[in-house]
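re the bet — no i am not wrong, look at it urself. input seq straight from the record:
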Amino acid sequence: MVADSQPGHIDQIKQTNAGAVYRLIDQLGPVSRIDLSRFAQLAPASITKIVREMLEAHLVQETEIQEPGSRGRPAVGLMVETEAWHYLSIRISRGEIHLALRDLSSALVVEEQLELALQHVQPFASRLLDQVDQFFIRHQKKLERLTAIAVTMPGIIDTEHGIIHRMPFYEDVKDMPLGEILANHTGVSVYIQHDISAWTMAESLFGASRGARDVIQVVIDHNVGAGVITDGRLLHAGSSSLVEIGHT
């Protein structure tokens, strides 16, 4: 619930209201301005201003809504504009790096899978930045507004601060502030997560375990590991702790 009289700094109020309206459009779209005003509990004038700014920023777009059984001119609805914004997903594994440019609906724009040597005279972070730069150069005609970079990899990771304490296969990765390095280099927000934890979350949100409150996902490839969701929340989220499995 968001109210116009919400206390606090005026800029924070505007940001909070805009965030609430965007989430409603994402969840309910296409949705009319009248319904947005009712669901967000904001005055129609506030909705008009927020929506106008979002349209100018290419965050949302207008579309026609034809109610079942209705006659006359279709109403104007709002929906998230997913194609105007992109994010880069990076998956690092043994000897390989996978880069994929996606829009906000997660639709694939372009992807590449490249070799990433386990041992090299060039430092790991420098090689990663070179790969990202070259990827953007090769596909600059397809790139719209880059909003974030998401990185998944094995290892011991401080996800909150974007620090890679240890990573298998790449011996020079030790206590590396990779999130900060990438963010400073690209100028966008960077999110880093353990690869199995990210996979477990993705399955819970969009895949085979969607809707389940308690999930254990076991992965066996170059490494053996597991991701756990308990009561709808990822276990050890935001920490460097890992779920370990084994046998006797």
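see?? The first strand starts at residue 31 and ends at 32. told u. also Residues 10-28 form the longest helix (19 residues). so pay up
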